[in-house]
């Protein structure tokens, strides 16, 4: 960690904030300060924007193969440095090392995927219906982008945006979450090493997100915002983007239903629940938030899930054998505590967990709640912690209605052995993604994203690059 950059990355150079400000980065396992990084203000953001705007024209003209190979080299460097990056991520974010290694591989894969897409940007020539006019279609980069990422997947949320932007020929200003700036700074250093020209990617770490981002969104030079974070912040940024008609991609919050039918294979359902709930300690937009289990299997499902959850080892993510690290900070933990207390007050049974441990850090134990009252606050709030809330249902129409009764629509999980029911239910769920007898949907080759208030647009897959490209149509009459 000693050589991890801690300055801003602007125009290919490492620089301090103009006013010399710094901010601390904490270790969530101990609450102690790991290091300080530069704390950018509006002046620094403007310099980063200048660098991106200046680099845009030449970068757009760079051969796709060149852009592709930069991403490919960066992919290889990330894979070579898996251990180093995983340790860095665990130290600033808390997830266990095994999960951090998994995220490094997932993050790198976006660069490999988009290195392959960079050379497949297509266009077209068509004869129009009148038989005389021709239409020439080409695709060009949308222009300088502002990328804003959350703390829960510090590396992958960056590569999922930088990969397609580089592939499409866009320049960028990246603003990572203040809790986890180090992974993004390490990523910038890797891209520089891989040959990314100066100014194409600029990174501003800041504790003053609003002051830094709003002028960029309203200023008219940034042409695209790609945001991952909460729905509330997404709504604010959409309003700010309206003034200069900035194109937006929004990956927002979720409230995933996890539905277990009476004909489900309970081994698959419990395994799926462990992944859908416990990946990233429950701090994932894809985390199962509401478990709807058919009344006839609810008791057995709850017992088996509680056994598995109770067997998980909680501790600092760097320690061998640990399954569950600390939550991001004490504020995040206090929210989980309040949601559990509210559910228990309304009659939920605690099958396992539910008690905050003494001592440093922001640990919370894996918890299973049964007989949760549908009016509990955790039914319409992202728990963002290791708490599984179980409710029962009696028939298919009822569970679909309840699953859809939320403003969010990111992902749903369906467990049934009947193909007919699996397809019928999946089609009726108002979500962008469905895990069918699986608790994991994320894959760089698949279009990730939600409907309703879970977002706009898709990241990854064949369509991920479209978010960073515009069509240009040339009308050509032929006599
Ligand atoms: P958040 O509070 O919305 O913050 C996300 C990012 O936005 C951070 O970098 C944050 O910086 C920044 N931000 C906040 N206010 C801003 C403003 N006024 N202007 C510009 N930037 C601003 O979300 P979070 O707590 O970090 O992350 C958790 C949320 O992300 C959850 O809702 C989760 O579901 C969602 N998420 C969604 C996906 C997806 O793909 N759909 C993936 C991962 C996470 P500051 O912290 O400095 O304010």
List keywords for this structure.
479 residues; alpha/beta; Aldehyde Dehydrogenase, Chain A, domain 1; Aldehyde Dehydrogenase, Chain A, domain 2; 2 domains; seven-stranded mixed sheet; six-stranded mixed sheet; 13 helices; 22 strands; 21% strand; binds NADP nicotinamide-adenine-dinucleotide phosphate
Polypeptide structure, described:
This protein folds into 2 domains: 8-252 and 454-476, Aldehyde Dehydrogenase, Chain A, domain 1 (3-Layer(aba) Sandwich); 256-443, 3-Layer(aba) Sandwich (Aldehyde Dehydrogenase, Chain A, domain 2). The model has no long low-confidence stretch (mean pLDDT 97). The protein has helices at 42-61, 64-80, 82-93, 97-117, 156-168, 181-193, 209-219, 231-242, 266-278, 298-310, 330-345, 396-404, 419-428; strands at residues 8-10, 13-15, 22-26, 33-38, 124-127, 133-141, 145-148, 172-175, 201-203, 224-228, 247-251, 256-260, 288-294, 349-352, 367-370, 387-393, 408-409, 411-415, 433-436, 451-452, 455-456, 469-477. α5 links the parallel β7 (145-148) and β8. Strands 14-15-16-13-12-18-19 form a 7-stranded mixed sheet, with helices on both faces. The protein has 479 residues and is of the alpha/beta class. The chain is globular. The structure holds NADP nicotinamide-adenine-dinucleotide phosphate. NADP nicotinamide-adenine-dinucleotide phosphate is lined by residues 148-153, 157, 175, 177-178, 209-210, 213, 228-230, 233, 236-237, 251-254, 285, 382, 410, 455.
């Amino acid at each position: 960690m000693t050589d991890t950059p801690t300055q801003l990355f602007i125009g290919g150079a490492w620089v301090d904030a103009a006013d010399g400000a710094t901010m601390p980065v904490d270790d969530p396992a101990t609450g102690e300060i790991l290091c300080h990084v530069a704390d950018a203000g509006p002046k620094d953001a403007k310099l980063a924007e200048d660098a991106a705007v200046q680099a845009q024209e030449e970068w757009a003209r760079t051969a796709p193969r060149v852009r592709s190979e930069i991403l490919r080299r960066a992919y290889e460097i990330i894979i070579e440095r898996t251990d180093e990056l995983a340790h860095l991520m665990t130290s600033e974010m808390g997830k266990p090392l095994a999960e951090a290694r998994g995220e490094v591989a997932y993050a790198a894969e976006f660069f490999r995927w988009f290195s392959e897409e960079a050379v497949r940007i297509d266009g077209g020539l068509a004869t129009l219906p009148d038989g005389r006019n021709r239409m020439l279609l080409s695709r060009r980069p949308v222009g300088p982008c502002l990328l804003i990422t959350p703390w829960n997947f510090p590396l992958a949320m960056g590569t999922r945006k930088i990969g397609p932007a580089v592939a499409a020929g866009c320049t960028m200003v990246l603003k990572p979450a203040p809790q986890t700036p180090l992974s993004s700074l390490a990523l910038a250093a890797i891209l520089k090493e891989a040959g990314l020209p100066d100014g194409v990617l600029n990174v501003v770490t800041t504790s003053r997100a609003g002051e830094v981002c709003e002028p960029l969104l309203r200023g008219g030079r940034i042409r695209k915002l790609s945001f991952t974070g909460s729905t509330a912040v997404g709504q604010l940024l959409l309003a700010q983007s309206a003034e200069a008609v900035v194109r937006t991609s929004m990956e927002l919050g979720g409230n995933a239903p996890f539905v277990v039918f009476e004909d489900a294979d309970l081994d698959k359902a419990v395994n799926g629940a462990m992944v859908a709930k416990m990946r990233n300690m429950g701090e994932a937009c894809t985390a199962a938030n509401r478990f709807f289990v058919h009344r006839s299997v609810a008791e057995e499902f709850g017992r088996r899930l509680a056994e598995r959850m109770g067997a998980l080892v909680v501790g600092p993510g760097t320690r061998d054998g640990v399954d569950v690290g600390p939550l991001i900070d004490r504020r995040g933990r206090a929210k989980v505590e309040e949601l559990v207390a509210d559910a228990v007050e309304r009659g939920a049974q605690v099958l396992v967990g539910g008690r905050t441990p003494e001592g440093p850090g922001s640990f919370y134990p894996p918890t299973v709640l049964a007989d949760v009252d549908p009016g509990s606050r955790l039914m319409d709030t992202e728990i963002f912690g290791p708490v599984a809330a179980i409710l029962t249902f009696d028939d298919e129409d009822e569970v679909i209605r309840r699953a859809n009764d939320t403003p969010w629509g990111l992902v749903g999980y369906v467990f049934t052995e009947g193909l007919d029911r699996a397809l019928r239910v999946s089609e009726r769920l108002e979500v962008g993604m469905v895990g069918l007898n699986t608790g994991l949907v994320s894959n760089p080759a698949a279009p990730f994203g939600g409907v309703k208030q879970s977002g706009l647009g898709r990241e990854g897959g064949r369509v991920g690059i479209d978010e960073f490209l515009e069509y240009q149509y040339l009308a050509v009459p032929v006599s």
